Amino acid sequence: MKVLGLIKLAAGVGLILPALIDTAIWLVPLAALGLMMFMTGAVAVRVVRREWGSVLGDMFFIAMAGFVAWGRAFSSEAFLALG
Questions:
Q1: Of the candidates 63, 71, 64, the residue with the CA atom closest to the CA atom of residue 28
Q2: In terms of residue numbers, what domain contains 17?
Q3: How far apart are CA 49 and CA 8, in angstroms?
Q4: Hey, what long-range contacts does 35-40 have (CB within 8 A, 24 or more apart)?
Q5: Contact indicator for 57, 46 with CB cutoff of 8 Å
Q6: Domains in the chain: how many in total?
Q7: Rounded mean pLDDT of the chain?
Q8: Distance (Å, rounded) from C-alpha 68 to C-alpha 62?
Q9: Rounded (10°) CA dihedral 50, 53, 57, 59
Q10: Contact 15, 55 (CB under 8 A)
Q11: What's residue 73's pLDDT?
Q12: What are the pLDDT digits (tens) for 17-40?
């Protein structure tokens, strides 16, 4: 359980820190995609265990990470940062 917590903490830092220090903005969509993959595994485990209430929460978390990944990857700021 401690390793899973560290993975979630690293993903949270990867989502927030680049915006705070205004550097490596291109890492935010990658952190969001990694978090989506991690939470997809969590959904799979919860489906096997038939924990349906928790599945909905995890699906919402995946949707929010996808929203961040899409918004950061295809925003005008992302293209300006590359150029």
A1: 71
A2: 2-82
A3: 21
A4: 35/8, 35/11, 35/61, 35/65, 36/62, 36/65, 36/66, 36/69, 38/7, 38/8, 38/11, 39/65
A5: no
A6: 1
A7: 86
A8: 10
A9: 50
A10: no
A11: 79
A12: 887 888 888 888 889 999 999 999
**51: helix, strand or coil:** coil
How does residue 49 score in pLDDT terms, banded at 50, 70 and 90? very high
> Of 33, 17, 21, 20, nearest to 73 (Cα)?
33
Q: Tokens standing for 17? A: 């820190």
| DSSP count for the chain of H helices, then E strands | 4, 0
Tokens of residue 62, six digits: 């995946």
CA 67, CA 1: separation in Å to the nearest integer? 27
Token code pair at residue 38: 């991690």
Tokens found for residue 45: 């485990």
Q: Which of 35, 32, 14, 40 is nearest to 75 (CA)?
A: 32
